[in-house]
Amino acid sequence: MEGAEATRIMIGVNESTIKGYPHASISSRGAFDWALQKIVRSNTSGFKLLFLHVQVPDEDGFDDMDSLYASPQDFKNMKYRDRTRGLHLLEYFVNRCHEIGVACEAWIKMGDPKEVICHEVKRVQPDLLVVGSRGLGPFQRVFVGTVSEFCQKHAECPVISIKRRADETPQDPVDD
Amino acid sequence: MEGAEATRIMIGVNESTIKGYPHASISSRGAFDWALQKIVRSNTSGFKLLFLHVQVPDEDGFDDMDSLYASPQDFKNMKYRDRTRGLHLLEYFVNRCHEIGVACEAWIKMGDPKEVICHEVKRVQPDLLVVGSRGLGPFQRVFVGTVSEFCQKHAECPVISIKRRADETPQDPVDD
């Protein structure tokens, strides 16, 4: 096992639904901290972390109702802004890896998070995918969907879903 | 992360359906090898492996139809025999850990594997549960049930399900 290629762990990360960009969601940070504390531990040279942030083009259409678009440039600006915010989100994880001394890569894709994550797993072939999960009950899940359940079924690599700690769960568990 | 308590990984192991005791199933060995190669790596002091083997009392009743029980001793002998075989199964994993230098514990429980595993997770509180999976399709799953899916839903810790490699899958995928 000495000298083997680093174990490549892909971590899906998203922004906080409470604080928005560039803040990472509670479950993203939880998944990252868990991977560091329980898997990487002191063996920083044995692992490489791959951070994937998937941006939802316009999550449910409501955002657009408050916006006025007068030119193609307006759309360009919007996309550029979201992309920039996504970069700041990734910066948090890349900086922490740099401090700790773990190799990492980070990138942004647009689309439906659950499908894009599975597609990227196929393309990048990590050894392991770690996703945070809000740990919602069946009733809440119907409305918000769960990326982690979908990935556990469809991703072509082993998947760990990390639930938030009870003391980190916001008043409304749908928040993150 | 230095000097932290070892990460405790529970691994559910069972006997081969083809070779029987004391041979470990393909998916049990796969789950173990995966945990060593991808998680433990060279950091042998950072992890402790907990092997749980659950024995099914009489899997579907058919075994008993070929047996004649004349005294309470007959039952005792049978249970003792199975327990002994289970011990030899665990011996394989404990020996390999000893060779590599990873701390481990191993024990046997009787009952329905999926329920006993979840119960033991609750009792022992590992950081991670690793279970092998045959990777069966939906049609095959109906008849054999899947321990890994049940554990992913119900175990009170993060769960990784490790599928067998395609080149290790027997002709009949229900075999293991």
TrEMBL record, chains A, B:
Q: Which CDD domains match?
A: USP_At3g01520-like
Keywords on this record? Hydrolase
Which SUPFAM superfamilies does its entry note? Adenine nucleotide alpha hydrolases-like
Q: Keyword check for ATP-binding, yes or no.
A: no
Q: Which residues form the UspA domain?
A: 25-161
Highest taxon in the source lineage: Eukaryota
User: InterPro entries annotated for this entry?
Assistant: At3g01520-like_plant, Rossmann-like_a/b/a_fold, Universal_stress_UspA, UspA
Record keyword Cell division present: no
Q: Which GO terms describe its molecular function?
A: AMP binding; hydrolase activity
> What is the protein name for this chain?
ADENINE NUCLEOTIDE ALPHA HYDROLASES-LIKE SUPERFAMILY PROTEIN
Pfam families the record matches = Usp (PF00582)
